[in-house]
Protein: Class F sortase
Amino acid sequence: MRRVKDTAIAAVTAVALGSGAWLLLGGTHPDAPPQPSAEQALTARTGRGAAAPALPPSPPDRVRIPAIGVDAPLTGLGLTATGSLDVPPAGKKNLAGWYEAGTTPGETGTAIVAGHVDNAEGPAVFYRLGALEKGAEIEVDRRDGGVAVFTVDAVEVYAADAFPDEKVYGAADRPELRVITCGGPYSRSTGYQGNVVVFAHLTGSR
Structure:
């Protein structure tokens, strides 16, 4: 499997992971996706919880986040011509993707999973990602038959023009996971103006 440095990935564009077209039907939509609160931000205490031993490399097949009702298959993602992370097909609203040229979920390093917050028809796979809280679990089914279990350390939202590439995509000395979707304010002219990012680390496997 080809490996590239995590920091080579440019920031995920807000437009790529959420169109918000369905919001336009009613102006300010009462069911706009939830955004993380300040209490869910990354801190020194939550950012370095005890980690489980790393797993050998194995591509992932599925991601589950029980706290927000996510149970979705995973497809491999690459990079666009401009170096940003590609995204799953917008029409498949319950499909998420993982960056297949990087770390596989469970091995040492930073694994990346991304998915749409919505599409033209309504909410998509990571619509409720901003409602996730510290301590929640994320399960990733691996092709080797195992399940990698991650614990959420933080959920943050960033403006697209201030996305912290190194913080999100930078290399890690233990098994970590980032889950990314659109977030922040919504504009009719530009769509979502930022991204929600979940930070998690491996705490178990089975």
